[in-house]
Amino acid sequence: MPVTQQTTETVEAQPLVPPIQLPVKRTRTDGPRRDAVLEVLRQEITMGRYDDGERLVEDRIARELDTSRGPVREALRQLEHEGLVVSYPYRGAVVLGVSEEEVQQVLIPVRLTLEKFSYLKVLERMDDADFAELAKEVWTMQEAAAANDLLRSVEADIRFHEYILSRSGQAHTAQVWRSIQPRIRAYFFRYGKEADLNRIAFEHGDLLQTLQSGDAAAIMGALENHITIRTPAP
Amino acid sequence: MPVTQQTTETVEAQPLVPPIQLPVKRTRTDGPRRDAVLEVLRQEITMGRYDDGERLVEDRIARELDTSRGPVREALRQLEHEGLVVSYPYRGAVVLGVSEEEVQQVLIPVRLTLEKFSYLKVLERMDDADFAELAKEVWTMQEAAAANDLLRSVEADIRFHEYILSRSGQAHTAQVWRSIQPRIRAYFFRYGKEADLNRIAFEHGDLLQTLQSGDAAAIMGALENHITIRTPAP
DNA sequence: TCCCTGGAGATTGTCAACCATCCTGGGATT
DNA sequence: AATCCCAGGATGGTTGACAATCTCCAGGGA
């Protein structure tokens, strides 16, 4: 499954023929290759197609995705910073499982901190266009709930929160979020099989409504409920 | 200022002379080159030798540190994950300043979350050797305070907390810490010029003592005081 | 004058081939 | 049984060459 085709190719240059070489650009603007590799790997790990502890060998992945080791190396580093992988010098990278306890007691509270801050920051700056954007995601969640589509629900959930994070323009907050988000995502997929999608959609609708009210205290409360409460019962 | 000398060199091979080539290994085990590059850059940024927004050009850095672009690229990515740098595709990396507000309202609270968790996790596992290790750092802080040496004090401070973090063996917690710690460090250097080093040393001594008592509630309280309180007055 | 276009130059992103360095897992030795 | 040694496997690093983009600025046209 090639990540993207070769960037440029010239038609087989026949030795003594006039240089008609038509450059066949298949490049398009799909951004750096490493990002494509990153997405593939992240998806595969998140969806559980790798076992915890399984090795990720640069050369193999490079061949599989039809690219060179460079982009693969960078993608692996990124995955390490997203906590989906651990690696030791000269020994390579292995898949790292998410422990329920750490997610509940560390990642979720950290996330709460981030969101509380950025919601406060973004409050005045939000206009109707922003709310419309968020409403769209809530709508998607409702659809996903109706279709019992966990994937779409989680994606919309993430986008909902990410929209506000990015809108708040707090560089460091966003940085921490990027590092935490993939793990939370992976966690939802693993332990969220029997999550109540309707409830998720409803909660976000409620959160959005509270946001529109502009009442800071109410927002903090809604956030805390929304983020903290869903403990998949230990 | 070369990061490290060439890995292996053979004595100038005189054309028609018997292959006496004595391999002059200067390698030693100083780990991956990227780490050396990383440390140099991190230090320079932390110490304010780069202005906020200043560009970090791969080629220039590679030449300055006498290495190739590979390790430099990896170091820059790492710095990005440490929040000391931001980069955009095809546009390169620039130094990112730490905003006091984000440190106070985001990074510090996040840090508190991490430490609370890991301290609880590590409680029973701590033995006298561990406490001795921590006592050593407290001692260093006292020394640094006496000499009014901010650098040494901050270093020992970081090591104190990092020791417990790593001792707790919580992979995800440690991951987040690694991403946050450099920024907090940089923050201390920038805004901590008139910090009371004696107070810092004392607080850690107190924290250590509380740790040895094994009283979980007391430890949480001490942590909260220690980490949260030092607001350099806005 | 102001806006738009089209390079030119600079820098990042990728490739490929090669070598150094380090880790791992036997097998032979003691 | 414990230890040492070695070969194979993988990662870390180098080089040189291109491809892909971005930035900026000079001209041209409205």
Short key terms for the protein model shown above:
Arc Repressor Mutant, subunit A; Four Helix Bundle (Hemerythrin (Met), subunit A); 7% strand; three-stranded antiparallel beta sheet; DNA binding (chains A, B); transcription regulation (chains A, B); 2 domains; DNA-binding (chains A, B); homodimer; 9 helices; mainly alpha; Tscrpt_reg_HTH_GntR (chains A, B); two-stranded antiparallel sheet; 234 residues; WH_DNA-bd_sf (chains A, B); DNA-binding
Please state the CA-atom Rg of chain A, rounded to the nearest Å.
Answer: 21 Å
**What's the name of the CATH homologous superfamily of the largest domain in chain A?**
GntR ligand-binding domain-like
Report the strand count of chain A.
5
**CATH-derived architecture of the largest domain in chain A:** Up-down Bundle
Largest sheet of chain A: 3 strands, antiparallel
Topology:
Two copies of one chain form a homodimer.
Chain A: E1 8-10, E2 23-25, H1 33-46, E3 55-56, H2 58-64, H3 69-81, E4 85-88, E5 92-95, H4 100-122, H5 128-146, H6 150-168, H7 171-191, H8 197-213, H9 216-228
Antiparallel strand pairs in A: 1-2, 3-5, 4-5
Helix pairs in contact in A: 1-3, 2-3, 4-6, 4-7, 4-9, 5-6, 5-8, 6-7, 6-8, 8-9
Chain B binds a DNA duplex (30 and 30 nucleotides) through residues 7-8, 27, 29, 32-34, 57-59, 67-71, 73-74, 87-92.
Domain HTH gntR-type (chains A, B): 31-98
Keywords (chains A, B): DNA-binding, Transcription, Transcription regulation
GO molecular function, one term (chains A, B): DNA binding
